[in-house]
Amino acid sequence: MADISATVNLPSNDDIYLFHEGTNYRSYTMLGAHIAAEEGIPGVRFTVWAPHATYVGLAGNHNSWDGTEDVDSLYKIPDSGFWSRFFPEMKAGTFYKYRIVATDGSSFLKADPYAFQAEVRPATASIVAELDGYSWGDAAWRRRSKAPYQAPLNIYEMHFGTWRQKEDGELYTYREMSELLIPYLLEMSYTHVEFMPLAEHPYDLSWGYQGTGYFAATSRYGEPQDLMFLIDQLHQAGIGVLLDWVPAHFAKDAHGLRLFDGSPLYEYADPMLAEKPGWGTLSFDFSKPEISSFLISNALFWFEMYHIDGMRVDAVTSMLRLDFEKKNHEFRRNANGGLENLDAIRFIQQLNKTIYHYYPKALMMAEESSAWPGVTAPVHEGGLGFNYKWNMGWMNDTLGYIEHDFGARPYHHNLLTFPICYAYAENYTLPLSHDEVVHGKKSLLDKMPGTYEQKFAGLRLLLGYHISHPGKKLLFMGGEFGQFIEWKDQDQLDWLLLDYESHRRMLAFTAALNKLYVNERALWELDHDMEGYQWIDADDSGQSIVSYIRRGKKPVDTLLIIINFQPVERQLYRIGVPRPGTYEELFSSENIEFGGSGIHNDLMKSTKHEWHNQVNSIELTIPPLSFLVLKKSGRKAVK
After folding, report:
1. Radius of gyration of the chain (CA)
2. Catalytic one among 15, 367, 426, 436?
3. If I label 382, which of 152, 203, 401, 454 is the partner at 20 to 30 A Cα–Cα?
4. Known catalytic membership, residue 397
5. Is 314 a known active-site residue?
6. 364-398: per-residue pLDDT in tens?
């Protein structure tokens, strides 16, 4: 084996120290495969962390995937756990894996944990890739983007491979998708798109949640620069980009992180901590500083190299809870006798502090399904440090309510009224996500009771309730036009439904609703301030009607929301109003162009008739299964 002192451009002592300390937040700049020139000779330097290995070699087409000869061996950097070597004349596009020999003498091939590109599945090799050189055009977007606490945030969640497919079932590339997706998002007035995980993963039906290549944008849809192009074009069109990110667990596939150097390296050594039996995956060992360097570097990598605007952090509850979805004999309590994963808590806090240090305007959203306190509280106050949390309680209560038959709804009215009790406990995003329209749960449209027409009316009022409730918004693809069967997760959405008038009108409704949301400040300006919401009437369970006020900073922006969850028209329905004057129907889900009945209210002049604890009130007709938005008008009522 060659003398290590003969090599150049090794990771510095400082880089190695910080990696083992857990604070090397750009470890991807030293680990992995990097195109370089050393002593004037072009080639690639490979560096890998494998502290328990007795040998590491480079295997590829050039040596028939052997990697056991001296000419293939990486050099061990003493007392570091790192192996590194420069291979002259090697180029971008080279396929490779590491040949690792463990302490027990076993030999196996592993993909590079820091590879920037991987083979298209089912092949599993890493590929030498050059990420530098893309010419970004989104500087204006990055200058003006800001955290949307007092701004509209309406997210379109999508699975890249099944949003649209070509006629022969072939997948669109990142570049090709830009021509389809961007006009659609603009037409629909979404502010952001959230991609389900795009890090490399071997199994399509894991949807990307069981990853093997954390630094490699999946090759299913093209090259790394192609994804850069898509994100760049989205930004230039004024659309933010969120990425679903999975630090909770990883796949057990042989070429991946499991037993990487022959021993538990990325995962816990204790199976009770490592195993996620419900998912068949392994948890990262959050007690190791090196895992913090790996994962936080990965998060920053997506921000820096791909210009994403934020992350939806998957399965946070599974990280926080040692007993998550485990039976009594499958978990172990912490040193204090508790069920919290203290290592994971520290990691999450470190992650968020680091992201906000480098990207203060980033969106870090937690998919956290328990009542864990302080998910969006600052770390210095003992919180986890996210700036948004998915409101799973609102989602479960709301979907539970709308699935009830009309006759049962009066007895479950609390499912509509209770969520406001905790709406300001965190900074919330209201998700109607992929998890709710798969595995036998039915599509949003098919969850609705009643006739065909009533199902569409029910979906319209559900989306209206969603858009008008305090919190930022997220809707999974297909819900906007009334996908009738649940998400199939292999085939594209049923765009053929748009050949039918009912689905075209549903799409028109969602586009108009999203535009209303963006234009009306009351629907987002005080999302996280109790002053932005007030009940008009929370107690009309008998008629299954709720009414409330949404406020912006200026009184002129105030909106009145009335929702009728029964297929019964309510005439001469009186509601209290906050100010005297004339009110107009700004928006109605029962507009004929949306597929509704066309029942409409003309200008409504208030009278001094005390109602709902208000001095003034108005009377109106509420159509069956409808969502209405009223606003005080500057015009006088027509007599």
Report:
1. 27
2. 367
3. 152
4. no
5. yes
6. 999 999 999 999 999 999 999 999 999 999 999 99
